[in-house]
Amino acid sequence: MIALEPPADRILCKPLPAQTTTTFGLHLTDAAAERSNHRAEVIAVGAGQVYGNGVQVPHPLVPGDIVILAPSRGTDIEYDESTVISILAEQVLAREAP
């Protein structure tokens, strides 16, 4: 279990391994696999964004969700011998349906 808690509008994610084949069975080179790897698992979420009027809107994501991140994903953090990504909520492009 991770002991980090992100502030307000931040989300912590664990990058998932890059896929080495396409859905059609084509094998990807290492460079292509890395470029297309934007999937991550949410491991912690902040309380949500606070707007100017004082209203706090919670994140719709929960730990365990699989998300697609923007190519310019947030900041990589080395923690407990693993890499964690700290991102703003707006850098999440989509959540995979369960």
Can you walk through the features of this model?
The structure is a single chain. This protein is mostly beta strands and 98 residues long. 6% of the residues lie in helices and 38% in strands. The protein contains 1 helix and 8 strands; from the N terminus they run βαβββββββ. A 6-stranded antiparallel β-sheet has the order 6-7-1-2-5-8, with no helix packed on it. The protein starts with 9 loop residues before the first strand and ends with a strand.
Overall strand count: 8
* Helix fraction by DSSP (H/I, runs of at least 4): under 10%
Unreliable residue runs: none
Cα separation of the termini: 22 Å
- In N-to-C order, the SSE pattern is EHEEEEEEE
Strand order of the largest sheet: 6-7-1-2-5-8
Count of discrete alpha- or pi-helical segments spanning 4 or more residues? 1
Radius of gyration equals 15 Å
Strand content: 35-45%
Structural class: mainly beta
The overall pLDDT average reads 84
Gross geometry: elongated
* Most strands sheet: 6 strands, antiparallel
Please sum up the structure shown.
Helix content is 6%, strand content 38%. It has 1 helix and 8 strands, in the order E-H-E-E-E-E-E-E-E.
Characteristic terms for this protein:
two-stranded antiparallel ribbon, 98 residues, mainly beta, 6% helix, 1 helix, six-stranded antiparallel beta sheet, elongated, 8 strands, 38% strand
